[in-house]
């Protein structure tokens, strides 16, 4: 073993750092006036989606805007993950009741610096728990997957949703559900709808 290798082993053994945790909440609607919070969330969402959806949408497409994030906070539809103890916002998930029985989550996004931390799973659990507490028995999530090229990230997301208990229940009609976005698609894509029983 090299001297450097030995130093590395010792450093690992004495590492006393506390693992990072997050607090996930619906911020108070008045925080919609906090421009730095809104712009931070907008840039996290747009950065991770432009990466994840490369090749799916035309380059000019942006997943969200400050105005949309602000409106979602005001209507208590956006749960935010804050890093503890710094209180730095690092991710979010949009949560909506489609019907009294059916909840939906979307716009799931986490600062890339925290990917692989398990916080993505916590955001999904938060959305499910919230909808369950509101009386929902089914949770829905949608995934747009290009059919003209492979997108490894989308395939990983699909495998993850399946591990979390979601199953494809139908192929949606993207142009019917999102007529304003359909012209911004860069090519053909399959719009998969997943369900998970919440009971
Ligand atoms: C979706 C997102 C929030 C998940 O965040 P995350 O940090 O990866 O969340 P997690 O750490 O909980 O990991 C999610 C799963 O991916 C797995 N994973 C993480 N990194 C991986 C990698 N490089 N390769 C394969 N699997 C990986 C994890 O093991 C985990 O699976 P598990 O819960 O069964 O262990 C994040 O990837 C993101 O912001 N993506 C861009 C936006 C997006 O595509 N949102 C969803 C649109 S439908």
From TrEMBL:
GO molecular function terms attached to this record: acyltransferase activity, transferring groups other than amino-acyl groups
UniProt domain N-acetyltransferase: residue ranges: 24-190
UniProt cross-references to SUPFAM superfamilies, sorted A to Z: Acyl-CoA N-acyltransferases (Nat) (SSF55729)
Pfam families associated with the record: Acetyltransf_1 (PF00583)
Protein name according to UniProt: N-acetyltransferase domain-containing protein
């Amino acid at each position: 073993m090299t001297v450097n290798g030995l130093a590395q082993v010792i450093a690992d053994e004495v590492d006393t750092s506390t693992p990072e945790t997050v607090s996930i909440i619906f911020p108070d609607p008045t925080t919609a006036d906090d421009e730095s919070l809104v712009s931070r969330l907008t840039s996290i969402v747009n950065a991770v989606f432009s990466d994840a959806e490369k090749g799916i949408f035309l380059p000019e497409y942006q997943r969200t805007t400050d105005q949309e994030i602000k409106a979602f906070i005001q209507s208590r539809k956006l749960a935010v993950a804050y890093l503890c103890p710094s209180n730095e916002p690092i991710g979010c998930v949009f949560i909506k009741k489609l019907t009294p029985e059916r909840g939906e989550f979307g716009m799931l996004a986490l600062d890339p610096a925290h990917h692989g931390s398990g916080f993505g799973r916590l955001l999904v659990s938060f959305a499910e728990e919230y909808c369950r507490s509101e009386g929902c028995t089914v949770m829905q999530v949608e995934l747009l997957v290009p059919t003209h090229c492979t997108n490894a990230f989308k395939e990983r997301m699909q495998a993850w949703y399946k591990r979390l208990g979601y199953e494809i229940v139908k192929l949606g009609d993207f142009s019917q559900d999102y007529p304003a976005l359909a012209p911004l698609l860069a090519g053909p894509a399959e719009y998969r709808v997943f369900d998970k029983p919440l009971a």
